């Protein structure tokens, strides 16, 4: 290969560099870029192993000209490689807020083995500043490689802290007031920094912000829990590679999820997702983001409960001739249990004593007047002595196959046996249900949402909490990648053997 990924990223101080070192004259770091005064220069030195492999180089210089008050600025730019001009007196667009990518073709004959030089110079006639954001160089056949490497390197520092300020909305004369620090981290293993971020707290407060491309600043808005709206802005105060920085917040504020994506009619393992948003208020219950590649996601957090395993169920009556038996209550199918009376008793035996905190009843397929309306749930250690745990009266189901969850009141304790005693239904001579489930105390937070890649439609997205020691379980995508690599290596080996045989035949002929 002619030379490695080569870039200089001036959005950070010191600059992020790959296969390069930089020398400055008449230039200074200005928060998100280098500011070059008239006659200022930036000299980049980079290494080339074999210029014969590089017929042409794609050079991208991302820059902007500062304004002169309300007027367009003026700072022409000269570009030299090995002292030879690539561009002279180039007028870079100014007057806006977004830097421009200026792309040049550098002839390969200008390169030499070893150290090469690139010089970017602001004209001595410049009347305003030339702002330089980044420089990348790539062999013409690999355009974009260095930019991808740059963004991946920048994304490694994915834990951010910002000093923030607020002021009342629609009041430009009001002073900005200090607000609590914002600490956040969003990473799903794609090496992409966020462009936008939004969240809603458990108290109902909502925030939406958008970042500068170099993550130095953000601007947005907040609606407090009482409905008051503010402008909201921040400037970066710290940035770290995970897990540094997250030790500044309680452990429960950082969420780590095993995730699945829903497509092709099924769910498929995806990257681990890490989420942290700490704005000094209540924890978020919903988060949205869009990254700098155009990918976006939405997650709604919810409490996950473990389901108690039922090993046996007995009913006071069941319709065995139609296979509408009590055991159907334990299945995920739509088969139901039907009893030929307007009252019924269901006894459940658990695999182990479980502290049930809630239970779920699922209505069956037809005849709403068969639905239970009044019942009592009892618990027992031995299956003989029963203690009431929860009683309900006048309950209804709005639709067929509706799952309703009922939370036990008071302080629950563990039981091995549970009895559902149904004392009234909707008026029919039978009682029916499709499913009964018992849930134990919460085991953590999961999420439901969607994810959308920039060039695709939205897909389902869901997650469950990562265990305390997740590194022993290799994610499925990584396993598939390893298998694909092994297959590719084997295929290449076979191809090499075939080519060697062909070469031998050619030599014989």
Provide a brief overview of the structure.
The protein is mainly beta.
Report on the biggest sheet.
Answer: 12 strands, antiparallel, barrel
User: Can you tell me the overall shape?
Assistant: elongated
Treating each run of at least 4 consecutive H or I residues as one helix, how many helices? Answer: 2
What level of helicity do the residues show?
under 10%
Please report the total strand number as a whole number: 32
Mean pLDDT across the residues is 88
Strand order of the largest sheet: 11-12-19-17-32-31-21-20-13-14-15-16
Provide the β-strand percentage band: over 45%
Give unreliable regions as ranges: 468-496, 505-509
Structural class: mainly beta
Task: Kindly report how far apart the N and C termini lie.
Answer: 34 Å
Rg, Cα atoms, Å: 32 Å
Plain-language structure description:
This protein has 509 residues and is mainly β. The protein is 9% helix and 51% strand. It contains two helices and 32 strands. It has helices at residues 145-156, 476-508, and strands spanning 6-9, 16-18, 21-29, 34-48, 56-65, 77-81, 84-90, 100-107, 114-122, 130-139, 159-168, 177-187, 194-201, 206-211, 217-223, 229-240, 255-263, 266-269, 273-278, 284-291, 296-307, 310-315, 337-339, 344-354, 356-362, 372-380, 387-392, 403-407, 415-425, 431-433, 435-452, 459-465. The protein is elongated and about 95 Å long. Residues 468-496 and 505-509 have low confidence and may be disordered.
